[in-house]
Every structure is written in structure tokens, then in C-alpha cells.
Design brief:
CATH architecture of the largest domain: Orthogonal Bundle
Number of strands: 2
InterPro entries: CcoP_N (IPR032858), CcoP_N_sf (IPR038414), Cyt_c-like_dom (IPR009056), Cyt_c-like_dom_sf (IPR036909), Cytochrome_c_Oxidase_Subunit (IPR050597)
Shape: elongated
Order of helices and strands: HHHHHHHHHEHHE
Keywords: Coiled coil, Heme, Iron, Membrane, Metal-binding, Transmembrane, Transmembrane helix
Strand order of the largest sheet: 1-2
Strand content: under 5%
Pfam families: Cytochrome_CBB3, FixP_N
Radius of gyration: 39 Å
Distance between the termini: 80 Å
Number of domains: 3
Largest sheet: 2 strands, antiparallel
CATH superfamily of the largest domain: Cytochrome c-like domain
Organism: Arenibacter antarcticus
Bound molecules: heme C
Structural class: mainly alpha
CATH class of the largest domain: Mainly Alpha
Number of helices: 11
Protein name: Cbb3-type cytochrome c oxidase N-terminal domain-containing protein
Length: 293
């Protein structure tokens, strides 16, 4: 009788092999395939069912064959099959892979030369090493074909793709989480709804000092290209959020407005007021702001 592994090794081994292959090939993003696609659970259930079924068939075939044996052969079979699983294969594999000559056989491979009593064995390369070497050649061929002939995705491309994906995610995230902006992340809003909201906020909070058309009064003119505290969305947001110079009258609006609202009113100023000609413009203050890209 052949010395093979018992069912409780075979079934899990094959099951997890197929499971691993499935996880590898089913595209499920960062999550395990069986979470992302519950149908794979059904698939693995069928696999398990088949594995058990095959084992049962093997068992019954063995039983039938057992009946046909002579009584002595049956006895011998029972004896060997009871010690089937003794890691014999593992021991044999280890020996095969190391490929050593037994000490008693060393005479066959000892070399002729003799340096002051030091002699040398002409051992073969250990098979495990040789197989690794062959495997690396196969790997190299596959690698060459995949990355240099068929232009597979290399690390650079993978990186670019990951960055592009991440950027897309950030964009989507920002759309749903406008409230998270600060002076460093704020961007000019151009949606009509944002500008409208900004206008309403401006009318409610800012006209007293900056005038409805932005021409300025207590506060500076917001329509010209001169800015005391810096122009551009980030500076304007910062000024609104943190206030102007001490004692000038421009408070830190972050106490009153939400970040999203400050982004809206800042965008309103830059989109709708800047560049227009107000009825009563206040003289330019500060310096011409040039957006440095
Ligand atoms: C009480 C009066 C007052 C109110 C109300 C006011 N501001 Fe001001 N604002 C000022 C003054 C004064 C300055 C100049 C600050 C300085 O010189 O440091 C200023 C400066 C600014 C600046 C910077 C201008 C520059 O040239 O750098 C912006 C932008 C601005 N205000 C936006 C707003 C917005 C938006 C609101 C409403 C949410 C608002 N302000 C409400 C008085 C006011």
C-alpha cells in the first residue's frame, strides 16, 4: 500500500490552497474576497462539499478493494495503514533535498589530492539549492516576459495609479466634508450654490465695514488687487478666520463662522467682488497681490 497522507491533512490542504488562489485572483480591493463578494463563500462551500465527496468515494473504493484482498494481505494492509502517517515523506524529502552521502559512502567521492592530511569531498550541489536556482531562472523568464515584453505594471506605474486613486478619493472626501477646510487646504469654490451662500454670509456679516459692493469703509476695499494681508483664497481665508491686525477692527470670524462658511464668503469676495468697480472705492491699501503658482 502506498504511504499517503490521511484525509484530515488532504482536505484542509487542498481547501486552503483553492481558498488562497481564489483570494489572489478575485479582485476585491483591500478587503478579503469572501467579504467583498459573498458569492465566493458559496463557491468555497461547494469546493468543501466536493472535497469531502471525493474522500468518501476514495474511502468506499478502498473498502471494496480491501474486501477482494486475501486475509493475509488484509492483515498486512491494516498493519501498514495504521502507521501510514509518520512523516516518512517529510524525512525522505529532507534527505533528498540535502542530498548528502552517508559517511560510510564518502569513500566514493573523496578527491585524490591530500594537503598535509586535509582531504576534500567532491559533493554534488545540494538539490534544494539547485532547485532554487532553476526556480529563479523560471522566475526571471516570467518576470522578463511580464514586465519587459508585455509591459506589465511596474512600481512607478503602480505608484502613479495609487496616487491618482488617492487623489480621487480626496476629491470625493472633500466634497462631502467641506467643513474640514483650513487656511492650508482651502480652495477657491466656484459652484453657484457656494457663491450664493457666500454672498448671503457677506451681506449678513461684512457689509457694515466693507460695503455691499466691497468698496470699503471701516474695512479696506476688497475689489482692488491691493491686499494688506495677502490675496488669494488661502490668505483671504486666513484673514477672515484669524482676523486682521490687532486694533484694526477685523475680528477673527472663526468664532462665529464655520470653516465651510468662511471658505464660501472668501470665495464670494474673490469670485464676485474682486475686479469689480464699486460706487465709492476706498483708496488702495497694502500691495498688489500676485498669485505665485
Ligand atoms: C467691524 C468692521 C469689519 C467687519 C464687520 C468685517 N471686516 Fe473685514 N476688515 C476690517 C478691517 C478694519 C480690516 C483691515 C484689517 C487690517 O488692516 O489688519 C479688514 C480686512 C479684511 C480682509 C483683508 C483685506 C486685505 O486687504 O488684506 C478681508 C478679506 C476681510 N476683511 C473680509 C471680511 C469678511 C469676509 C467679513 C465678514 C465675514 C468682514 N471682513 C467683516 C473690518 C471689518
Amino acid at each position: 500500500m502506498k504511504n499517503h497522507s490521511p484525509w484530515w491533512i488532504r482536505i484542509p490542504l487542498v481547501f486552503f490552497l483553492i481558498f488562497g488562489l481564489m483570494e489572489y485572483f478575485v479582485d476585491s480591493g483591500d478587503k478579503p474576497a469572501f467579504i467583498e463578494h459573498p458569492i465566493t463563500l458559496i463557491f468555497m462551500g461547494v469546493v468543501l462539499f466536493l472535497l469531502v465527496g471525493i474522500e468518501l468515494i476514495i474511502k468506499s473504493v478502498e473498502n471494496v478493494m480491501f474486501q477482494t484482498l486475501s486475509p493475509e494481505a488484509q492483515e498486512r494492509y491494516l498493519e501498514t495503514s495504521s502507521k501510514q502517517w509518520e512523516w516518512k515523506w517529510a524525512k525522505k524529502l529532507r534527505e533528498d533535498m540535502i542530498g548528502e552521502k552517508a559517511v560510510a559512502e564518502e569513500g566514493e567521492i573523496i578527491l585524490d589530492h591530500n594537503y598535509d592530511g586535509i582531504r576534500e569531498l567532491d559533493n554534488d550541489l545540494p538539490p534544494w539549492w539547485v532547485y532554487l536556482f532553476y526556480a529563479s531562472i523560471v522566475f526571471a523568464v516570467v518576470y522578463l516576459a511580464r514586465y519587459h515584453v508585455f509591459n506589465g505594471e511596474n512600481q512607478d506605474m503602480e505608484y502613479e495609479r495609487a496616487v491618482a486613486e488617492a487623489q480621487l478619493e480626496i476629491e470625493n472626501y472633500k466634497k462631502t466634508a467641506k467643513g474640514l477646510v483650513d487656511a492650508n487646504t482651502v480652495e477657491l469654490l466656484t459652484d453657484a450654490s457656494d457663491i450664493k451662500a457666500g454672498e448671503a454670509l457677506y451681506t449678513a456679516n461684512c457689509v457694515a465695514c466693507h460695503m455691499a459692493d466691497g468698496g470699503g469703509g471701516i474695512g479696506p476695499n476688497l475689489t482692488d488687487e491691493y491686499w494688506i494681508l495677502g490675496g488669494g483664497i488661502k490668505n483671504v481665508f486666513h484673514t477672515i478666520s484669524e482676523g486682521g491686525r490687532a486694533g484694526k477692527g477685523m475680528v477673527a470670524w472663526k468664532q462665529i463662522l464655520k470653516p465651510a462658511e468662511m471658505a464660501q464668503v472668501a470665495s464670494y469676495i474673490l469670485e464676485e467682488l474682486e475686479g469689480t468697480t464699486p460706487a465709492n472705492p476706498k483708496d488702495a491699501e497694502g500691495e498688489v497681490w500676485v498669485e505665485s503658482k
